[in-house]
Write a structure and sequence with these properties.
5 helices, seven-stranded mixed beta sheet, about 170 residues, globular, Aminopeptidase, alpha+beta, single chain
């Protein structure tokens, strides 16, 4: 079973650039997600909408959306998802929390200001506090700037081109 993440989300968060604040996860509507997806990607990414929201019925997978709003107009300008899966289930002697970073989006008018980097670091912070042993990247754009950012943070590329960050022992 995954543990309650409310204390992790309420902890000291990664710093954002001036004029931006983190959105409360429960305060981000699907319509806002869709609108941001269209702005950032030029189209609606239906897999994001179809992706599981919340916790599965067994409590083994949890999606955590981290959003950023502009403080002046409260518009959602950035969003990233952290998907946590507990492969050990109810076993308490093994920590097999695995995480995936996905769906990083920043509105074009707000790009280049550090919002994407803050969203990346905030999701990594949450994964660290939840003691995720392996963090992977889903849907990484194939640009050197983005890839170099991940490599600089310790991610390594596997034979299939996926990026992973191994941080934890499998045993508690």
């Amino acid at each position: 079973m995954l543990k309650d993440i409310s204390s992790v989300l309420n902890a000291e968060r990664t710093e954002l650039p001036p004029s931006y604040a983190y959105a409360d996860a429960g305060d981000i509507s699907r319509a806002e997600r869709r609108e941001l997806d269209v702005q950032a990607n030029g189209s609606f990414d239906s897999p994001l909408e179809r992706a599981y929201w919340g916790v599965d019925s067994h409590g083994l997978t949890q999606c955590i959306d981290v959003g950023v709003r502009h403080t002046d107009d409260k518009a959602l300008v950035g969003l990233g998802r952290l998907i946590i899966t507990d492969y050990a289930g109810a076993r308490i002697d093994i920590n097999l929390l695995s995480g995936a970073l996905s769906h990083l989006m920043v509105s074009p008018g707000h790009q280049g200001r550090g919002i994407g980097t803050s969203l990346l670091l905030e999701r990594m912070r949450i994964a660290e506090e939840l003691e995720v042993y392996k963090l992977s990247i889903r849907g990484l754009e194939d640009t050197n700037t983005i890839r170099n950012k991940y490599f600089g943070l310790g991610f390594e590329e596997d034979a299939k081109g996926m990026l992973h960050l191994n941080k934890r022992s499998l045993y508690v």
